[in-house]
Amino acid sequence: MQTTNFHSMLKISTLLMLLSLLFSVGAFAEEEEDNPYSLLEVVAGKTFKRIKDEQPQIQKNPDHLKEIVEQELLPYIDYQFAALKVLGKHYRSVPPERIPDYFQVFRKYLIATYAIALGQYDNQTVEFEPEKDYDKRKDVTVRALVKEEGRPDIKIAFKVRKNPKTKEWKAYDMIAEGISMVSSKRSELESILRQDGLDKVIEMMEEKNKRPIVLNDIQEQA
């Protein structure tokens, strides 16, 4: 049930995660780069502007969304950290030599997932919560409300982690109406990992990665 509910909100929730992750390092002062709250607010307009500007290319070739995600988004997602959290306790039983392959397939899987969500953009607005003290924090939760005329507000929370080595803030999870994307994916893959192992998970993700993007068809692609 939880996974079904999560997929039903993917249009808004994954799209909002994109907002929280996408930014250009050169566009911000150093202090803003180090502020996860300012980061999320500044990036929202920039993200939607690129989607609007490139609609002709997107309508002609929806897979162009994958290029946008890979170029603009992926450098700012801690996808390896997210991938390990999805594995959960099964990480201990995975052959170490297979982890690099899993990381690469998971990375492409995120590109495809986020590209599908980007295709659902239709002028939602976002209100972020006021900034809280984060100076001594390594992991923060930034909350926001998604507003769309004629629909109830949707509560979103972003899990953002400061890399201990690079000191960069990168997102690794998003929670929509109390449902975690990482937890949902972990539940989805639990039985596959237990019964068939990591190779079957990689095979499943590779199959999904090959599917072309179809605009306004998110339920089937998710």
Topology, pairings included?
Layout: H1 2-8, H2 10-21, H3 30-33, H4 36-53, H5 55-60, H6 64-73, H7 79-87, H8 99-118, E1 125-128, E2 139-147, E3 154-162, E4 169-176, E5 179-180, H9 181-195, H10 198-209, H11 218-221
Antiparallel strand pairs: 1-2, 2-3, 3-4, 4-5
Helix pairs in contact: 2-4, 2-8, 6-8, 7-9, 8-10
Keywords:
single chain, 222 residues, alpha+beta, five-stranded antiparallel β-sheet, 14% strand
Task: Report what the structure shows.
The relative contact order is 0.19. With 222 residues, the protein is α+β, with helices and mostly antiparallel strands. It has helices spanning 2-8, 10-21, 30-33, 36-53, 55-60, 64-73, 79-87, 99-118, 181-195, 198-209, 218-221; strands at 125-128, 139-147, 154-162, 169-176, 179-180. A five-stranded antiparallel β-sheet has the order 1-2-3-4-5. It is built from eleven helices and five strands. The model is unreliable at 19-31 (pLDDT under 50). Helices cover 53% and strands 14% of the residues. It is globular and about 45 Å long.
**Rounded Rg:** 17 Å
Mean pLDDT: 78
Tell me, briefly, the overall form: globular
CA(first)-CA(last) distance: 15 Å
Strand order of the largest sheet: 1-2-3-4-5
Strand fraction band? 5-15%
Order of helix and strand elements from N to C terminus: HHHHHHHHEEEEEHHH
Helical region count? 11
Short description:
The protein has helices at about 1-10, 10-20, 30-35, 35-55, 55-60, 65-75, 80-85, 100-120, 180-195, 200-210, 220; strands at about 125-130, 140-145, 155-160, 170-175, 180.
